[in-house]
Amino acid sequence: MFIYNVKVNGGKLFKLFFTAVVVFIVCILCFVTLQVFSGASKESEQSASGCIPQSSVSQISTNNYTNVLKAVHDDIDSYVGLKINFTGYIYRLSDFKDSQFVLARDMFISSDFQTVVVGFLCECATVKNFEDYTWVEITGEITKGEYHGDMPIVKIIEMKQTDKPNEEYVYPPDESYIPTSGLI
Questions:
Q1: Cys-Cys crosslink for 106: which of 40, 46, 115, 139, Cβ 3.0 to 4.6 Å?
Q2: pLDDT score for 4
Q3: d(C-alpha 84, C-alpha 87), whole Å
Q4: Domain check: are 61 and 148 in the same one?
Q5: What distance in Å separates the CA atoms of residue 116 and residue 112, rounded to the nearest whole number?
Q6: Looking at the structure, do residues 140 and 165 belong to the same domain, yes or no?
Q7: Rounded to whole angstroms, how far apart are CA atoms 159 and 90?
């Protein structure tokens, strides 16, 4: 029968444990730092391209229409290059070029159902083929242009006539809405 007498030095054991914990923490910090910096570089690449890959098209609905419209008008540069799809009617003003129109919606402004026309200024050579107040669905790209000052202008990629939607009216932007250039 063998009996081993093991003498444990508490000071050396503590130093060994403490060193292992410090090495583990340093490894975790290095990993996190690497993830933060690689994520930041990817995010800055996305910011340069409008925060959404250029191949994707953002669908604008009746519910978010005026929030998106307000956000784009407030910060045009963040949305340049973004492709959008939405429905509205053709509305022209007398000082527009032949290729310009507003893809419009009527927005309620009071409880007694008074409305105003709101929408994106658009440019399309084939808009001459459509009469005023014709409902169309468009896909286009937001650009920065000039119309009585800086203005977002949607360059039409595709436009087709459509039926009037069930929800043809829109509401003012939410008071709680905080515009972000990341997502529409």
A1: 115
A2: 66
A3: 10
A4: yes
A5: 13
A6: yes
A7: 11
> Same domain for 13 and 68?
no
Q: β-strands 115-123, 135-146: how paired?
A: unpaired
Asked if residue 13 and residue 76 are part of one domain, the reply reads no
pLDDT band at 5 (very low <50, low <70, confident <90, very high): low
The tokens of 57 are what?
Answer: 């098209």
CB atoms within 10 A of CB 157: 14
Query: Among candidates 152, 129, 170, which has minimal Cα distance to 50?
Result: 152
Same domain membership, residue 106 and residue 32: no
Residue 72: which of 105, 39, 121 has the closest Cα?
121
Q: Which CATH number covers residue 136?
A: 2.40.50.140
Q: How high is the mean pLDDT of the chain?
A: 80
Tens of pLDDT along 108-117?
Answer: 887 777 888 8
* Chain position carrying tokens 């029968």: 1
Question: Residue 129: pLDDT above 80?
Answer: yes
Q: Which amino acid is at 67?
A: N
> What is the pTM for the complete model shown?
0.62
Are the CB atoms for 124 and 99 separated by under 8 Å? Answer: yes
Virtual torsion, Cα 140, 158, 168, 89, nearest 10 deg: 100
pLDDT confidence of residue 1: 59
Question: Is residue 3 in some structural domain?
Answer: no
pLDDT at 43 over 80: no
Token pair, residue 41, equals 């570089």
DSSP class of residue 125 equals: G
